[in-house]
Every structure is written in structure tokens, then in C-alpha cells.
Design a protein that fits this description.
Layout lengths: L3 E4 L2 E4 L1 H4 L12 H23 L1 E2 L4 E2 L5 E8 L2 E2 L2 E13 L5 E8 L4 E23 L3 E27 L2 E7 L3 E3 L2 E8 L6 H9 L1 H28 L13 H7 L20 H12 L3 H17 L3
Antiparallel strand pairs: 1-2, 3-4, 5-7, 6-7, 7-9, 8-9, 9-10, 10-11, 10-12, 10-13
InterPro entries: Haemolymph_juvenile_hormone-bd, To_sf
């Protein structure tokens, strides 16, 4: 039974998958079908609700994550030989619960499942402060209120698990393919008027702002999403004769302290996201962002085309 189909170039879950209920021992359901059913409900229904309402348990207490509240982001990339200094404070990110499950493909023999989601629109509103000179031509200074809108935000990753006593547990996630289709950044001065010049130059930095914002979002949601998914997977029981083909490999790679979503963004310069790590590091070391940025965008687009 197939749980996905192609539509306008995107792989989406079929309507039949939405009507299924978990049935681990069902005669007409394979093991992976049952896993897909359980995780589909856990992600598309229950996770969305908990993001909206928050959660309180013996393990942790989380306020609602939509809107998600962030305190501060500070960037100082170098443009035209001069630092572009911008600080964003009191951020409110809306749209975290609006995601659509694009793909859910388990491969239990390898103790993995692939998942991708699309956020139609993520909007971050904040207070900003800018103190910069661009190409010795534009002096950009001031404070005010700003908004950043990113549309069709795609995130895709593979999640690694281990099996023990008939149950599964998540131990890590691979670095994902992440990008957005369109963006719009609007900055208003303290008088409430839109600053056209400032908004124009800030929009050129929208990819950098996006990835730095995404990094902050991951920090805030890491433990919540990791605990939630592991609680959901505990409900799935493996048959007594289940023997994954890669148990030895997963045990070799497993680290008890390895976080779930931290791995969604690079922690080393290896792999397809090496350029992202170097770019974010470059923000702190005043690298010339336009040069690194072009390489970064090309890298992301090439990786995305492999899977769309």
C-alpha cells in the first residue's frame, strides 16, 4: 500500500493514509504501514495541537510555541568591507503549527524513517536596531519595528532509531535539506513609516537571517519535539521476531547525549551542509558574506533538486 503520491512535483500523503488508525497486529497491514499510521496521527494532529497549546508533564513544561518567543538575534556580516550590524529583539514567530506533512517513509529494517514538512508561511515580528554603512554609499541607522516573512519553508531529514525490548527509541537525526521559496522583510522606523532603503538592503540578507532564525528556533524546540516523538514511538510495539539489519551500525554510532533536533543543523563542516556551518561561523569572524553566500545558495538549491 502506498501512502504518498506526486502532485505538482511534491510528494504528498494520500487521503487513505489520513483515514487509517494504528493497528500494529492488523492482518492486512505491514509493520511499516502501521508505523506510518501511528506517526502520521502523532505529527499531523497531536503535535500541531501541542505546539498551539503548550504541554505540561512530569518531564517538562512548555508554553505554547505558536507564536514562538525568542529574545535576541545579533548579526554583523561584512558587506563591501563594512560590518552590517543589526540586532533583533523580542521576536515572535508565527506559523509553527501550520506545517503540512509532505512525506513520511519508514525503513524499519534500517531503523530509520524519512520525514519532510512544509510551512506555508513563517512570520517573525520584532524590534530592530541597525548601525551600518553599505559600500560607502548608504548610511543605515535607526531603530523600530520589523517583520520577516518566509514562504514555503521546506525541511526534510532522516531520523535514526534503536530497538530494545520490542520498542523503538529515537537517537539522532541527519542534517536536513532546508530552504524557503520567497521572503519579504519590512522595517519601520520609530515613526511607523516603512524605511525603503533599509528594507531593501536587509532583504538581501534574508537567507542569512532565515538560517540564524532557524537555529534559534531549533534551540527552543529541541527537547520538546524530541520528547514528544519518543513518547509517540513508545506506543509502537515490534514483533518478537523483528531483527533490523543495521543494529550493529546504530549501536556503534549511538551517543546517549546526542540531541534530536540539534542535529538538524550542522555541528561540523562535513556533509552537504558544510557551507552553512562555515557561513554562520563567518558572521562572527567578519568573512565577506556575498562570496560565501553565493556558494551557500547554490549548495542548497542543488541538494533540493535531488529530492523534489
Amino acid at each position: 500500500m502506498s501512502y504518498s503520491h506526486a502532485l505538482n512535483g511534491l510528494k504528498l500523503l494520500t487521503s487513505s493514509a489520513r483515514n487509517l488508525s494504528p493497528s500494529n497486529g492488523a492482518e492486512n497491514s505491514t509493520l511499516e504501514d502501521a508505523f506510518s499510521e501511528l506517526m502520521f496521527d502523532a505529527i499531523t494532529n497531536k503535535l500541531k495541537d501541542q505546539i498551539k497549546t503548550g504541554v505540561e508533564s512530569e518531564i517538562e513544561r512548555k508554553a505554547p510555541l505558536d507564536p514562538l518567543k525568542l529574545e535576541r538575534i545579533h548579526l554583523t556580516p561584512t558587506i563591501g568591507g563594512h560590518p552590517f550590524d543589526i540586532t533583533l529583539k523580542n521576536l515572535r514567530v508565527r506559523g509553527m503549527s501550520s506545517f503540512t506533512l509532505r512525506d513520511l517513509t519508514p525503513k524499519l529494517s534500517e531503523l530509520r524513517f524519512r520525514v519532510s514538512v512544509i510551512f506555508p508561511s513563517l512570520i517573525a515580528e520584532c524590534h530592530y536596531a541597525v548601525n551600518s554603512t553599505v559600500y560607502d554609499v548608504f548610511d543605515l541607522h535607526g531603530t523600530g519595528f520589523g517583520s520577516m516573512q518566509f514562504e514555503d519553508v521546506l525541511m526534510r531529514t532522516s531520523v535514526n532509531m534503536e530497538s530494545s525490548n520490542g520498542s523503538l527509541r529515537i537517537i539522532s537525526a541527519d542534517p536536513p535539506y532546508v530552504d524557503f521559496a520567497r521572503s519579504m522583510i519590512t522595517l519601520k522606523g520609530s515613526d511607523g513609516r516603512v524605511s525603503s532603503a533599509l528594507s531593501t538592503h536587509t532583504n538581501e540578507l534574508s537567507p542569512i537571517l532565515f538560517w540564524m532564525l532557524a537555529d534559534q528556533v531549533v534551540d527552543e524546540m529541541d527537547s520538546f519535539v524530541g520528547n514528544y516523538l519518543n513518547d509517540a514511538i513508545k506506543e509502537f510495539k515490534l514483533p518478537a521476531n523483528f531483527k533490523p539489519v543495521v543494529t550493529w551500525l546504530m549501536k556503534r554510532q549511538h551517543s546517549p547525549m546526542n540531541p534530536i533536533l540539534k542535529r538538524l543543523f550542522p555541528v561540523s563542516s562535513f556533509g552537504p551542509f558544510g557551507n552553512l556551518y562555515q557561513t554562520i561561523s563567518g558572521l562572527k569572524h567578519q568573512f565577506n558574506i556575498p562570496t560565501v553566500f553565493e556558494s551557500l545558495r547554490s549548495n542548497f538549491r542543488s541538494n533540493l533538486r535531488r529530492f523534489l
